[in-house]
Amino acid sequence: MDSPVMLAAGILGTTGASLRRAALSGAGAVVTKSVGVAEREGHRGPVVVQVEGGLLNAMGLPNPSYRSFQEEIDIGREGGVPVIASIFGATTSEFGEVATGLDADGFELNLSCPHAERFGAEVGCEACNVEEITRAVKRSVSVPVWVKLTPNVAEITALGLAAQRGGADGVVAINTLKAMAIDVESCRPILGNRFGGLSGPAIKAVAVKSVYDLAGALDIPVIGVGGISRWEDAAEMIMAGACGVQVGTALRKPEGYGIFRSISEGLAIYLDRKGMTLEELVGAARRFS
Amino acid sequence: MRPKNAEIVEIVPETPTVRTLRFDLAFDAVPGQYLMVWVRGVDEVPMSISYKDGITVQLVGEATRAIFDLEVGDGLGLRGPLGNGFSLLGDSILLVGGGVGAAPLAFLGEAAKERGIEVTTILGVRCCGDLIFRERFRRIGELVITTDDGSLGICGRASAGLSCLNLQEFHQIYLCGPEPMMADVIGRCRGMETKIQASIDRYFKCGMGICGSCSIDPSGIRPCVEGPVIRADELVGTEFGRYKRGPSGRKK
């Protein structure tokens, strides 16, 4: 990859045109919106609400089903960077069906979405499920398989180790933190789904610690995601042990798609100033343990 | 921002299926911008602003049905104003509205008139009973009406109104209405694409440019933040006029 800065799952990855635009804007790889076996329209609105320090969302895994998604991946590939398909399922066999039904440059298993009944974290908070599903997908495809982990557990490293045992090529941490917001005027939860997942600057410190712990416990690469909006955030995540980062919520900043270049250029200038390579920066904070 | 509570202070029936809601709060909005309107317990939907303190709603589905059930004194949660809005350019402009698409154009025309810009309007509706804001448009300049059934004005689509005007006189043309109508107008104004601004309708969910549900093929333009007003030269050769996507992302 030319840039260690990738487009995170669930952000703008609904269409091939968006994936291609992210790639052409400097993303080193792009992850699609999660796709599953059946078409889903997602939760009722509001699906996103701005809260202190970030965003709260409960999109509800809207997707056209993997059967209608290959075209989007192919268009995304015109951007010239790897297109990673984020996939979800309620069971091991559903994950297998989606993975074998798509031709992508890699898969990211969504075992962490916090707000969709029967999917995501409801499956992925149990280490045994993570291991079994990872193993099944690894068996059925020949491209790299990453596992995106939920931070809504006591010990995220237990999930990371399960993914590693299942044969994952890497783990991605973290998905959003369970959260909710209530409208004071009407006493109602604001999100249509009542609760959702918190992203953005508010969760960065949680993500950095998760990445730090995972990088210490695992032999496979860790990809850091959660609250990255400036090159300094990416540097911090990489120093904690991430070998690449993903950006999501920060795409809402006025610079929009320009965020990929601004982060990777900032990182390059920093590495130049320090006389370091990216590889040397990975886990640089770990020697103080 | 969290949704702001707005109390409905007035409900104006415009036609049997269109009504205007005025709120107890006004927005510092550019005409063409929109609000995400949270109908509590039902859904959150985008609505273009038709007055600095109001929206004009057409009954089309479940969320708008719920809006029609509201009374004066009831509240809605509003996020906005969002999006870019129209940009007023030149001394003489043409507005072309279809159906309820007249709503943001009336707001725009009033702002233009205030700045001393000469305004001409074409309003296309199915029948005379569907016409909204006739008086608002009359007050700001010349008004040409077209009806599909010939019950008022020129018989035909909004584009039929173009033939009675010298399009070269206009420095800028503003469109809002059904997509086939706007695509038709753009098609009849070949060579003028850079002077046409169209307010386009897509499935908005987040209203902040991150969910991707409204992205335009093949450019990936996000109408919820980079629109809803898009210059016609950026629409030519895109999905515009051919298809859009539903809530799951599937083309329809």
From TrEMBL, chain B:
Membrane-spanning ranges: none
InterPro entries noted in UniProt: Cyt_c3_hydrogenase_gsu, Dihydroorotate_DH_Fe-S-bd, FAD-bd_FR_type, FNR_nucleotide-bd, PyrK_electron_transfer, Riboflavin_synthase-like_b-brl
PROSITE patterns: FAD_FR
Residue ranges of domain FAD-binding FR-type in the record: 1-88
Protein name: Dihydroorotate dehydrogenase electron transfer subunit
Originating species: Candidatus Methanocrinis alkalitolerans
Lineage per the UniProt record: Archaea, Methanobacteriati, Methanobacteriota, Stenosarchaea group, Methanomicrobia
